[in-house]
Design goal:
Chain B: It comes from Desulfotignum balticum. The structure holds 2 protein chains of 2 kinds. By secondary structure, chain A is an alpha/beta fold. Chain A is built from 13 helices and 8 strands. Chain B is built from 12 helices and no strands. Chain B has 2 domains: 103 residues, Fumarate Reductase Iron-sulfur Protein, Chain B, domain 2, CATH 1.10.1060; 80 residues, no CATH class. Classes of the chains: A alpha/beta, B mainly alpha.
Chain lengths: 280, 189
């Protein structure tokens, strides 16, 4: 299938391997990603703490660009925070026509207008529901057999919108992981918050949050994430070394793609145990 | 800071008083059950539980609300919003309290507000966040050498992984400057 792709700022910087591995994985699965031309920041966490109106205008600008590109395609967002901002703005605009008119006045001089038609979808939503599971199973040839993976979802791809998974007990990664031949760790920390940006301004919060989560990962061979903020926190505050990979990196390796092409040299955690397994 | 100072600062800003009144209205049907506090992953780091803070909002104890760090420690994980039996928009209300604190420019929230400001300035200037320059501007704004030092180890790790891309700062009105200006004008109308 084809999608409009919104990478978001962190995928150009500290989460660059998430971007590389997304593009490689979708190419291998035979899907086409079209970048939203001239996309700009969605406002991240900052905009909603500073200015409520701007926290709608910034995502709306990107939705307007997406609509201008192709109204029939869904917008695919790998970053959970960007996903929530774009989705929330879309919802607000659909529910509040006065707000939509005000936003469109701001966008008009740039020859943009937002209708909020295009659907906004998280990467995990797309991978778990658009047929990727079967294609992964076919291409992976059980390459990850004997491997145990702890799926970590974080918060904002699950909450407050219960769009594609249970926000308290998420399971959407299970079938994708099993399709590679690997086993899924039975744990209940998958949807527990990692501390998000409070871990940056208050490191003791991150340390405690991540310690609690990774303690429960027990004997899992790797933790797999779908959010740049979760990935950063889980790699930064490890009580003991655990490989942490982005889901497209893990699936890409299972498909036999090279670690280099999936940005595996950029992870902060030591992921050599995973790489050597695929090589053997 | 004396608690009366917060009241005085607020009294000088009727727009913020109105904003707080809206938050209070959003919380009006809170039954003080404490589900938010028991669900909050950061509650143990807070000087006041979320339940207690909502009570302070409802009883107009703005001095209590803004002398506490509670709302600044909200990580926007939305568990409280999901579980609130009254269906109250608790996480969004936390963000609204952050907006008021940002506008009041209280000293106790200096680190957080300087961070958000550096972030927004970065978006206005380049359209996309340039993490390296954003952090540099944040360090300059907090004027506390301990802050950049606490990030040194992380910075070195990220640099070794080629994740940091230094750019030369650009002068001029910025990529999204006109859009920001129009958004401000639109709100003043």
């Amino acid at each position: 299938m084809d999608y409009l792709y919104y990478p978001g700022c962190s995928l150009e910087g500290t989460a660059n391997e998430y971007d590389l591995s997304c593009r490689e994985l979708f190419k291998a699965l035979g899907d086409c990603l079209t970048d939203i031309p001239d996309w700009t920041c969605c406002g991240a966490t900052a905009a909603q703490c500073v200015d409520a109106f701007l926290s709608v205008v910034l995502p709306a600008r990107n939705l307007a660009l997406a609509e201008k590109t192709d109204t029939d395609l869904d917008v695919l967002v790998p970053c959970s925070a960007c996903y929530l901002n774009l989705k929330k703005a879309r919802q607000d605009l659909l529910e509040n026509s006065a707000l939509q008119a005000r936003v469109n006045q701001v966008l008009a001089p740039d020859e943009l207008a937002v209708n909020a038609f295009v659907r906004v979808r998280h990467l995990l939503d797309v991978l778990s529901r658009d047929g990727a599971v079967d294609r992964v199973a076919e291409l992976a040839e059980n390459r990850m057999k004997g491997f145990v993976v702890a799926p970590y979802y974080g918060c904002q791809c699950l909450r407050p919108f219960a769009e594609f998974d249970d926000p308290e007990q998420p399971r959407s990664m299970d079938a994708l992981i099993r399709a590679t031949g690997a086993d899924v760790l039975a744990w209940d920390m998958g949807g527990v918050c990692c501390g998000a940006s409070t871990a940056t301004t208050k490191p003791q919060v991150g340390k405690e949050r991540v310690g609690r989560i990774l303690d429960q990962a027990g004997d899992a061979h790797a933790v797999v994430t779908v959010c740049p903020m979760c990935q950063m926190n889980l790699e930064r505050f490890q009580p003991r070394p655990v490989p942490v990979l982005y889901l497209p990196q893990f699936l890409g390796l299972a498909l036999g793609l090279s670690g280099k092409s999936l940005g595996c040299d950029m992870n902060l955690s030591d992921i050599r145990p995973v790489l050597s397994r695929v090589a053997s | 800071m004396h608690l009366t100072d917060i009241r005085e600062k607020l009294a000088a800003r009727p727009d913020l008083t109105r904003h707080l009144a809206q938050v209070k209205e959003q919380m009006a049907t809170c039954i003080q059950c404490g589900t938010c506090s028991s669900s909050c992953p950061n509650a143990r780091f807070m000087d006041m539980t979320p339940r207690r803070m909502w009570r302070a909002v409802l009883t107009d104890r703005v001095d209590m609300v803004f002398s506490s760090q509670t709302f600044m420690l909200c990580a926007s994980c939305y568990v409280c919003t999901l579980r609130c039996p009254r269906g109250l928009p608790l996480t969004d209300a936390m963000a609204e309290l952050k907006q008021v604190a940002f506008a009041l420019d209280l000293d106790r929230f200096r680190r957080s507000t300087r961070f958000y400001r550096a972030f927004m300035d970065n978006i206005r200037q380049y359209g996309r966040v340039r993490e390296t320059e954003m952090m540099a501007r944040y360090f300059l704004a907090v004027k506390d050498p301990r802050v950049p030092m606490s990030y040194t180890g992380m910075g070195i790790k990220l640099m070794a992984k080629h994740k940091l891309h230094p750019h030369f700062p650009t002068l001029g009105p910025g990529r999204l400057g006109p859009l920001f200006e129009r958004a401000t004008q639109q709100q003043e109308q």
